Amino acid sequence: MNEVKGMSRKVALEGSHAVSEAVRMADVDVVAAYPITPQTHIVERIAEMVANGELDAEFICVESEHSAMSAVVGAAACGARVFTCTAGQGLELMHEVLFVPSAMRLPVVAAIANRALSAPLNVWGDHSDAMAVRDCGWIQMFAENAQQAFDLMLCAYRVAERPDVLLPAMVHLDGFHVSHVVEPVLLPEEGAVREFLPPSEYPFPLDPDRPVSMGCYGPPYIYTEVKKAQEVAIENAYEKILETFKEFKEVFGREYRPVETYRAEGADILLLMMGSYSETAALAVDALREHGESVGLVKLRLWRPFPFEEVCRALRGVEVVCVFERALSFGMGGPLCSEVRAALYHLPEGKRPKVVSFVGGLGGRDVRAEEFENVLRRTKERVSSGELEGFEFVGLRE
Amino acid sequence: MKGELSWKELEVGAIVTEPGSAAEYRTGDWRSERPVRKQELCIMCGNCYIYCPEGCVVFKDGRYETELYYCKGCGICAHECPRDAIEMVEEGE
Question: Which one of A225, A230, A231, A234 makes the best mutation probe of the B interface by having the most chain B beta carbons within 10 Å?
Answer without folding.
Answer: A225
